[in-house]
Amino acid sequence: MPHITAPLPRVPAPLRRTPAALPRTPARLRRAALAASALALLLPLSACGGDAEAGDSSTVTVTVGYQSKTINTVTAGTLLRSLGSFEKHLNSLGDGRTYKVVWQDYATGAPITAQMTAKKIDIGSMGDFPLLINAARGKQLGTPTKLVSVTGYNLRGGLNTIVTAPGSSLTSLADLKGRKVSTSVGSAADGTLVRALQRAGLDPEKDIEKLNQQPAVGASALDSGGADALSQFVAWPGLLAHQGKAKALYDGAQLNLPTFHGVTAREDFARRHPAVLEAFLKAQAEATDYLAEHPVAAAEKVADATGLPAEVVYLYNGAHGIATFDPAIKPRLVAALKEDVAVLKSAKLTGDVDVDAFVDDRYVKKALGATAYARRLASAPPEPAGEVWLKGASKTLTFTSPSALLRQVAAHRDTVRAAYVPDTTTGTLWFADRAVWVADGDRLLPFVAPATARAYLDSHGGARLVPYTEALERAS
Fold it and tell me: Residues in domain SsuA/THI5-like (predicted)?
């Protein structure tokens, strides 16, 4: 039976001694001993990207690149790792090999692609735009990759949000003209920014000053006033809103274009080790089922591993969260990927990408079985609903009426951990106390951003904006 060994074994104490602490031996012998020790320490690192260690074909190192804080990839990263599912499946292969899993955590998809093309990462997870760059770079550099499964998706585009500072006077995309906007160029959030500005009649290259920044840097720039707005992927917009450091300006679901995250694998690795890739995909399916069956516990696990507030994780990954998790590669997502190519080409980040050649669902079909895969392929996201998470509860309370949810919050203010409401028109979930509320007669309606609320007001005479505190009072 194969077994898993630790990626980087702890260095024994004698090898950590400084030269001064070594026994008094001739200098030449001491130098030889130190060289041998250094060589011994380097040997475990020489095998990565699925290669056998020191020529030993019975040992296979599997290197997985993931983004712990990009929480719509957790079923192929943070959650999967915490459950130990991948290692368990490798242990059960029974092929006489020893498997060593190395997990590498990154902030964005770009460095994962760089490591994959260098054959230092075998399996990686990232968003849709980075996946296309992954496909293009892999082909260009002679290390082709394949999209083998999907993690989290939103059919309208709600995984990306443009936010501004809490006290900002900006209320629409038109207000961004001449402003500094932070994003990560080549990311899905950058794609949302480009498309949103174009629909608003703005030139993404000329009408704004785009700051190409990592998410954390962009968040700091927004906080310090160095950026007027921030366009980012999960979980940054929700995190900043939860912390009171940002408010939503644009809900990505207004584009009504699918966004998703997926798993990519090096073609040569998949060809040499198909059973390993299938083991990973089986583990991903188990992590997906665990998240669906235990959404609160899953949010807590991811929070513990990442340092993100569990309330923010649940906003995206909860029972009615912004993301739906399913490893099946749905045709609608593939079609959206093809539409994304033009955005990357216009930004000169890629040339043409053969999406059909990049997508390969053979491994996930085999891993899950034809019947189970067909069932997942036909599944749909749950209907939007509000949720209230009470302190100490292992499950949330679900509400189909915003007014009913507000009554629950008003009656249990001291015991509410978080309350979530779906945007009235897009269905994007948002924190109830950060939403834009509209009173329309006896109805209380939440919206993620001012633009969607304003669109409702324009078509419903007599409706008006109300503060959250007033919405609570009216509901109770």
Answer: 155-298
Domain 59-153+259-378 in this protein, CATH class: alpha beta
CATH of 160-255, one of 3.40.50.720, 3.40.50.1820, 3.40.50.170, 3.40.190.10: 3.40.190.10
Beta strand ranges found along 352-423 (DSSP E): 386-390, 397-399, 416-422
Domain with CATH 3.40.190.10 in the chain: 59-153+259-378, 160-255
DSSP E strands in 247-357: the ranges are: 247-251, 259-266, 324-325
Q: Is 132 exposed, middle or buried (0-12, 13-18, 19+ CB in 10 A)?
A: buried
Mean pLDDT of the chain: 90
Crossing angle of the two packed helices 331-346 and 188-199, in degrees rounded to 10:
80
CA-to-CA distance for 245 and 326, rounded, in angstroms? 32
Q: What is the pLDDT of residues 161-203, one digit of tens each?
A: 999 999 999 999 999 999 999 999 999 999 999 999 999 999 9
Q: What is the pTM of this model?
A: 0.88
Q: Over the stretch 200-229, which tens digit does the pLDDT of each residue have?
A: 999 999 999 999 999 999 999 999 999 999
